[in-house]
Write a structure and sequence with these properties.
mainly alpha; two-stranded antiparallel sheet; 2 helices; AMP-binding enzyme C-terminal domain-containing protein; AMP-bd_C_sf
Length: about 70
């Protein structure tokens, strides 16, 4: 998963302005409604509740790759 995150961040860095890129990438399942739509309100609520807690293992940021998996 580390290689995938690195490749995705590198691809976005090459093609998008800094203001258009996301700050972090997280892999996982999205909460969905019965009809299959993503429940964005639950995503916002989970992000706000996380606050100052440590980052989950499946979340990557560009600065994480200074010398790690693929740099």
């Amino acid at each position: 998963m580390c290689d995938t995150a690195f490749a995705l961040l590198r691809h976005l860095r090459d093609r998008l302005a800094p203001s258009k890129r996301g700050r972090r990438i997280s892999f996982g399942e999205f909460p969905r409604t019965v009809s299959g739509k993503v429940r964005r309100s639950e995503l916002r609520r989970a992000g706000a509740a996380r606050g100052a807690q440590p980052r989950p293992a499946d979340e990557f940021r560009e600065e994480d790759f200074s010398g790690q998996c693929g740099s």
